Structure prediction request, 230 residues.
Amino acid sequence: MTDTRTPIRARVGPLLRRAAAAEAAMWRSLYVWARRRPLPLKPGDETFGYLGVVRPILGIFIGLSVVEIPIFDLIVTHVVPWPPARWIVLGLGIWGVLWMVGLFASMTIHPHVVGDTGLRVRVSSGIDIWIPWRDVEALRKRHRSLPSGRSVQVEQEGDRRVLHLSVGSQTSIDVLLRRPTTFDLPTGRSAPMDELRLYADDPDGLLRSARGTPAPEADRRTTAAPGHPL
Prediction:
């Protein structure tokens, strides 16, 4: 008989570690957001949010969850003849609300950042990618709707490999790269990508901010600033 314990552990172990890390990051984000501390930015940095497209959905889910807590508490109290069940259900309900508020907080305190030396692309606390301007061929505004709701998607377009970092199944900015580049993702290091697509609530503002950054020294003869196609 084949021993399947090792392969199962090899698959489950990383999943549990990622889940634990995501849970810890969510509570940490909730704590930071609740304290209302300013974001740690460098001089000249400008932030751009991406929460707008999912804010109504999150608000509805949070509101419904808050309403459900007393309803389920009343049902369990009168239907389940086991007193601890009430506290278990109540605890799970409160945890669910706090988790969704933590997701909101995480997306709020981890915005995209346009700086003098590069673009920082983020999605909640799980994705944090730094792209130096010297690696950017051009930035283009283009709204896209994706068929999948996953935050990280990879697509092959001809001979080009594209990384989608979507929010609410949408992207609004294309980042064309000068050369194939790998990125750190929650599941590990990616394959070399030719383009990265992200979502920002204000793509026009992000493009204006990027065009106002100093051009890399090596590229001053060919481009005025990042974001202009060559």
Remarks:
- The two ends are 61 Å apart (CA to CA).
- The chain has four helices and eleven strands.
- The first strand starts at residue 46 and ends at 48.
